[in-house]
Amino acid sequence: MKYRALGLTGIQVSPFALGTMMFGALGNPDHDDSIRIIHRALDAGINFVDTADVYSNGESEQIVGKALKGRRDDVVLTSKFHYPMGEGPNRSGNSRRWIMIAVEDSLRRLQTDHLDLYLAHRPDPAVDIEETLSALSDLVHSGKVRAIGTSTFPAADLVQAQWTAERHGLERFRVEQPPYSIVNRSIERELLPVAQRYGMGTMVWSPLAQGLLTGRFRKGREAVATGRHGTQFPEQKLDVVEKLIPLADEAGLSLSHLATAFTIAHPGVTSAIIGPRTMEHLEDTLRGLEIVLDDDLLDRIDQIAPPGTDAGPNLVSYTPPAIAESGQRRRPAAERSAA
Question: Where is this region: Disordered (predicted)?
Fold first, then answer.
């Protein structure tokens, strides 16, 4: 296993990170089987483990905590906060109040006294970024968190956060966790260059595009209707898959191995998060660990899925309020009619 520098943190991580969203009620409810999968990944040299409080409502963190007993010091452990954890208006978001509660809950479930990385799972437009950075800085200074970061933040938000940290003497975001795959390449345009400019590591998620790049979903077949979360796959993405399959066959690779190898070929990408639900899924991914795509193959992928573009809407990315809320895109009706 060749390890990579996680930005400028000084931490060395494997090019694949073990995502644990599928461990627990959301995916694999068998704790013992999930623990065996985690141990197999660690034995294979993967030292990067990613979870979040919201995964199966804390169950994923509990499974990870049990799996890491006796092995915690060998693992770079990441968790995240933001999404609702229970009833009440203050049990979610990126406020200091919630961060301080959420981190203690995560540490307890994970049975550890610190997190190597603690990430804001999504932006929170209702909270001043200085508020979030101030709370996270206190966690770093207390030793409960080693480094802080973000997941699925727009490039502009990352720049604002870097400037805010510098202006107020706060800890900087050191890691970003964006979605990235052959069919969702828009982060190459701005986000990855921004991360590189500020020395941030990146751990990309959904390298198989919600299962689309496994080859199980094909154009014209009934099974194409929905992905893992009931998402309708756009025709443009299905068109890309139909062109990638013969390319992968010609290279002697499975489509999934081609897809995961593609994501870690970008110099701005530190690690790709894999999210197995079964041991079979993990073993298949591990067989692709050493695959390196040559320039000719990468050029041919570029011709099918142009750099910096998404093949259809990226339905799993963050949609800012300025796009999601029509009221922020239109002047009030009375003002429009007056004009």
Answer: 305-339
Which sign, positive or negative, has the C-alpha torsion 306, 311, 313, 317?
A: negative
How far apart (Å, rounded) are the C-alpha atoms in residues 323 and 315?
Answer: 13
Residue 55 among the catalytic residues = yes
Angle of helix 255-263 relative to helix 279-286, nearest 10 degrees, comes to 70
Q: Give the global pTM.
A: 0.94
The domain defined by 4-338 folds into: TIM Barrel (3.20.20)
> Does residue 226 register a pLDDT over 60?
no
Catalytic residue among 55, 118, 180, 198: 55
- Distance between CA atoms of residues 328 and 335, nearest Å: 14
CB 282 within 8 A of CB 22: no
Q: What is the pLDDT of residues 14-43, one digit of tens each?
A: 999 999 999 999 999 999 999 999 999 999
Measured CA to CA, the distance from residue 238 to residue 234 in angstroms comes to 7
